[in-house]
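Feature request, filed as a ticket because there's no other form

It would be nice if the structure record came with a short human-readable summary line next to the tokens. Right now we just get the raw output. Example of a typical job, pasted below so the devs can see what we mean:
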Amino acid sequence: MKRHLAVDTLGFPFFTHCSKANLSDAAGFIEMLTQNIDYFKYKSVNIPKITILLDHGYHPEHLTIELEQIYPPIVTQIKFELSPKPSKLELEAPGKYGERSGCSKVGNSKVKCEYGEM
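Raw output as currently delivered:
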């Protein structure tokens, strides 16, 4: 089981969804928005576009095509933005990605955390 969570700028849950573990993150994301498509159908035209921040595992072009097939006007209501990747310096420094967060760098590409590896 995978959990998908969309939050607002304050971190409060906006949409949630659980999908099968073998489903891609992008497909789970599409399912989550599809289940909540009424929000976009009834969204006021006066509200600016919603920015959806994605990590680099997502492909905004693909998501746009998929969402247009479900509800074409959605492309006028949302925009995708890829989150910046943490730099090597940020990964090694204490704080958000470093030791104070309960995580420490292991090898060249893995970060080990108290609750597992990332």
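Something like this underneath would help us a lot:
The first helix runs from residue 25 to 35.
Strands lie at 2-7, 13-19, 50-54, 78-82, 103-106, 110-113, 116-117.
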